[in-house]
Specification:
The chain is an alpha+beta fold and 99 residues long. It is built from 1 helix and 2 strands; from the N terminus they run αββ.
Length: 99
């Protein structure tokens, strides 16, 4: 049954209701496609990145350099899906940082 073959809106009965539902769905789909096309075709407002100055939010004096050195260790169990053949997996991670 096609929307073109439907009875007029004033016709009652099961056939008229089905046609009305199809007309509403086809109009809704057309509206969604139209809005999607508008969003894709019409460019939005351009956005610009924020310009930040180096050291603008830090309290270190100009001309001083610093070095960061760090170490982290993590260990624990690794959880897999119950149907997985891997059992009793453990992890040990040693991580270093130099900046």
């Amino acid at each position: 049954m096609n929307v073109k073959n439907c009875a007029p809106d004033g016709v009652q009965g099961l056939m008229g209701r089905r046609c009305l539902v199809r007309r509403i769905k086809s109009r809704g789909l057309a509206a969604v496609l139209g809005v999607t096309a508008l969003v894709v075709v019409v460019p939005g407002r351009s956005v610009h990145a924020q310009a930040l100055e180096p050291r603008s939010y830090t309290n270190t004096p100009v001309g001083i350099n610093f070095l960061l050195l760090g170490y982290g260790y993590t260990e624990g169990d690794v959880a897999f899906d119950a149907s997985s053949p891997i059992k009793d997996a453990k992890v040990h991670v040693h991580a270093g940082l130099l900046a």
